[in-house]
Amino acid sequence: MNKTLTDEQILSIAEKHHASHPGVDEWWEFRDRADVIAFARALLADQQPEPRAEVVDDKTKRLIKTLSDIIHDQTVAMQSAIIEWQHGKGAKAALSWIVNTLEGPGHLPDFDAPHGKHAQFWFNANQANPLPTCFCGNPSSSLWMGQGFCCEEHYRKARAKYDAARAGEGQ
Asked: What is the top-level taxon of the source organism (predicted)?
């Protein structure tokens, strides 16, 4: 599927790009035709997906299949819980789907662990790729400029401080 574009196709892309982006420098204002082609090739190269590794050994294939099955089954269990809640025996019965999914492999939360009594903080701290901790020490649920925030109030405080510092630079 990696088809090499002709120079004419690249020039056509550049013309279409310019036509759909008013205010952008004219494509013919490049140094020369070769410059336009080099620019377009670089632009297209940046948009290519990362190459994927091919899995060839059976052990890795089985591991991927097992992990995929686990994710699938946990998703179906959560869906079943919602069905039970909305169309079955209610919320308490629905919770049994979730408890059974976690209890079987020993994944029920430790309520005495840090954040064991605060659902959002528990999720934020224990997700696969947690965000940086908020300046107050709590786990973060949002990210701005590399800093994590546990709540909108802390984000607004940091943002106001940043905006004030930037306004001071302009004076």
From this structure: Bacteria
